[in-house]
Amino acid sequence: MGTEAQGRTGRDTGRPLNPLAGSSLLPGLTLSCSLACSLAFPLGARAQTVPPEAGEAVLAELSVTGSGERAGGPVVGYRAARSATATRTDTALRDTPQSIQVVPREVLVDQQSVRLTDALTNVSNVQPGGTIQGRSDTYILRGFRTQTYAIDGLVQSPANSFQPTQRDLANVERVEVLKGPASVLYGQGDPGGLINIVTRQPTLTPSADLTLQGGSFGFRRAQGSVSGAIPSVEGLAARFSFGTQNEDTFRDYGGPENSRHFFAPAFFWNPDPSTRVYLNAEFTRQHSQYDEGLIAFRGRVPLDNVRRYYGEPWSRYYGESNAITLLAEHDVNETLTLRQAINGQWGAFDVFATRATGVNAAGTSVTRRLTEVESIYHSIDSRTEALVRFEDPFGFRHTGLAGFEIVDGYRHPFTTQGAATSVSFLNPIRGSVPQVGTLSLQSDLRQKLSLFGLYLQDQIEFFPGLQLVLGVRFDTANQLYFQRTPTNAARPPEQNLTGVSPRVGIVWRPVEPLTLYGSYTTSFVPQSANILNVASPPPETGEQVEVGARFDLIPDRLTLSGAAFRILRANVAASDPVNTGFSIITGEQRAQGFEGDIAGEILPGWKIIGGIGYLDAEVTKDRFIPVGNRLPAAPVFSTSVWSTYQFQGGPLRGFGFGGGVTYVGERFGDITNTYKVGAYARLDATVFYEIDPTWRFAVNGRNLTDRRYIEQPFNTFNNLPGAPLTVLASLTARY
């Protein structure tokens, strides 16, 4: 269909057709049964991943987007056309009144990405913000740090300050970044935005893939996925994905290598045309060194030796994370679809390591302490939704969403510490023996969070080319944040929270290739700070005003998007200078700037993805931090571009090559702006050959100029350097 038809389907958010629908069904029932197969956003599942049985008719409307793409499903090439992250309905990206960028699986394959950080490099104004000593991932989105993300639309454990394992990409279909506050649909969250990882879903058609990778610094990895119907049960399909890897890394640990093992089973059951059931599970086990990276001194981080390690060979970290999600959907009729999702998460981690605590005035010695941490967490999330589609008496078309969410989370880290020997700042020599018997209590933290949220949303199409999105969420929460220390054993009162998170957005398409939009969105995070004589301190809040545009440079193939934004973060807590162990609410921070992103295919076989961003992120109000201080790890200017070309015919058919450059400006490492890390430009490249549809061989080079730089600043003692020149070879077999 042409672009006019595509414009009409923008209003049909949540109204895709089911490719399993047979020609014998009545048209109304066919439409009804099709609705939620592509609305199964909480699991990233889409009906198009379950192809029609032989002889069944596929309705022509499946081609309304040109490729039959559905939100959360596979993307052909580098350009996604639809998403459900911003609305929880299958909506065209150009009909979303908020910036959202999608990194499809094909980009991950071409770049041979093995970290979530590698995928997010392709998105403007997103930077890695630290690995929390090699344990997890944090990111800077539009200037603000976030330490958690969503999987298939469900935010990870709300009580956790970070995930205990690094994210594996073996079962990732696409990585989506919703820029700016997102509390209207997701509850508590950081003001910079939301990272949503959409997983691969089962298919009735048998398929399988296996990739073997090997490269620099002892890196070895195997990952694969197999999918198909289960013959004994009608309409039941399953997919099993796995990833396992080991590496020495370029860091000079002198101890065991790092390893991670990941397994993800997924099931889809279609017992009748109007009912769908999804079950997704993920299990991760991670063993790694506790690595704080390099240390800042006198305003900079020395880069003369990026292998320098201030820990000990016996330092260790073990983390495990587990999650199971069950989703059921039912089409009551052609107007109404009901969904119920239940998600359970649990896990643990333990640490035994030395930690740097200071550098002497001469810059010759690093003091350390011995730390042991044991932590557990668990949470459950229940979400109930109703999706309704109707036309009002004025002829305006509505896609309404109503739902409520109940969340209960808990975590309990127990930390002890003791003395450890000092080491040289420039030449740390390993060899100290841990004195386990001298460990004493540092912190015993118990955090409980219970949250109830009620949300409403309406996507209104007044006429083709003009849409309005209205949304609001009401939250109540109860939280206990009790941190027992050697000097403070007083149990604080439980905190109560009520909040309202509105959103309004407008989308206007004055001419067919161009879409303009504007929006106002908000966010909140319950305070974990202990405020003296205040039982229920106000939550940290964020609000954003954004205007943007999307322009199809080549219809259905290449899209350029841009946005300008301003985010205010208020009620930021800081340490109480008078009452030790308590905090006060004193701060306000602002991030404003603009960005542009491009994704798609310039010519047949020539693909591109990239972004450019300008960011002004600073403290605007505080009693202790100087106004005007820059927010940590947020560069003023950053950009990245990646492009590949694959020959489409002739003797070189199947051969391809590509490359990219990433530039990140200088950044301050902490909120007090005591030190900076320098700007860097990194050059990457790839060559690959698809022998036939079954076999693919690739060699990727990263940091080809062997540049020394800090990739992830976190604080004075935690600055992770980027890897030196790295080569990675891979062989993929597909069925």
TrEMBL record:
Places the protein is found: Cell outer membrane
Family from the record: Belongs to the TonB-dependent receptor family.
Major localisation: membrane
Membrane topology per record: Multi-pass membrane protein
Cited CDD domains: ligand_gated_channel
Species the sequence originates in: Methylorubrum thiocyanatum
Matches recorded under InterPro entries: Beta-barrel_TonB, Beta-barrel_TonB_sf, Plug_dom, Plug_dom_sf, TonB-dep_rcpt-like, TonB_sidphr_rcpt
This protein's record includes keyword Membrane: yes
Protein name listed in UniProt: Iron complex outermembrane receptor protein
The TonB-dependent receptor-like beta-barrel domain, residue ranges: 269-704
Record's signal peptide: none
GO cellular component, one term: cell outer membrane
